[in-house]
Amino acid sequence: MIKSNQFKGTGVAIVTPFNKSNSVDYKALGKLIDYIVKGGVEYVVALGTTGESVTLTSEEKRTVVAHVIEKVDKRVPIVLGLGGNNTQEVLSSLKKSADFNGVNAILSVSPYYNKPNQRGIYQHYKAISEASPIPIILYNVPGRTSSNITAETTLKLANDFENIIAIKEASGNVEQCMKIIKNKPKNFLVISGDDMLTLPLIASGADGVISVIANAYPKDYSEMTRQILKGNLIEAQKLHYKLTDIIEQIFADGNPAGIKAVLELMQICDANVRLPLVKVNKATQNALIELVKVYK
User: Fold this and answer.
1) pLDDT tens figures, 195-215
2) Which of 12, 57, 95, 181 could be stapled to 205 by a disulfide with Cβ–Cβ 3.0 to 4.6 Å?
3) What angle do CA 276, 64, 254 make, to 5 degrees?
């Protein structure tokens, strides 16, 4: 039996810091990892959407993962973003990374741009499941992929493949999430992919979150998640509402530009992003300056 409990609680979709020259800032990446691990999160997720993985070269991805593994130093589990809209290319990437030494699971986004139907989505993940030597977390984010993994498809994948252990649900459809929670296998996890919805989803029976805001506020956000998992609603609400304004602003002008702006204000890493992304606009920057200033 594959253990999924290591992915309960708060995972952090870490940013990939860049220098002014647009090269990867490995020193800042190490600083960020140490900060969030010491902040009490349960695991880290590298090379996800927030990590701007689609703008990294194959060699950069390899060196970023190696650096993350080194800096985490087995203190928490590591999840690696590995997905795409070309199934054969994903399978090739799995083969090239066959040993996955130091990586505990992969997070695989539903195919984007192609807009496959549910049978295509199922067959895509079936192929990944049969090729992957480590557990798989599905990633449903229709706002980016233009196609939704329905509750029925999620449940079929969860029941058919033992190594598909969880879904990161970022559809924003609470009813769909509750349908999965109600009917899922016992050890299959439902993980929030939306920082603002984590509290209500866990209150409905979800198991945790893969968070963006926890890059900057790992201690408070992971504690909020732990409190609601324990059923301590009042304590969780206090931390949730403490964070809602800044959560709203980090997504106001695009992710990860917003969270990188906060991390720069906190002197953890620069706010540089790679094209086609750009830094946040002046209004968002000013709002974030004020929020960071008053956050206690």
Assistant:
1) 999 999 999 999 999 999 999
2) 181
3) 30
Catalytic residue among 26, 122, 139, 217: 139
Number of domains in the chain: 1
In-domain check, residue 169: yes
Range in 6-10, 91-95, 229-233 the model is least confident about: 91-95
Question: Which residues touch 183 (CB under 8 Å, ≥6 apart)?
Answer: 151, 155
Catalytic residue at 168?
A: yes
Look up 139 and say whether it is catalytic. yes
Domain of 212: which CATH number? 3.20.20.70
DSSP H helical segments within 97-217, as ranges? 118-131, 142-145, 151-160, 174-183, 198-203
* Dihedral pair phi/psi, residue 117, rounded to 5°: -80, 180
| Stretch (H or E) spanning 190 | strand 189-192
Establish if 107 belongs to a structural domain: yes
Would 152 be classed as within a structural domain? yes
Q: pTM of this prediction?
A: 0.97
In a domain, 48, yes or no: yes
- Going by C-alpha positions, the residue among 127, 84, 76 that lies closest to residue 104 is 76
pLDDT average, residue stretch 245-269: 98
Catalytic residue (one of 168, 184, 260, 279): 168
Q: pLDDT (tens digit, 9 = 90+) per residue, 43-81?
A: 999 999 999 999 999 999 999 999 999 999 999 999 999
156: containing domain = 5-232
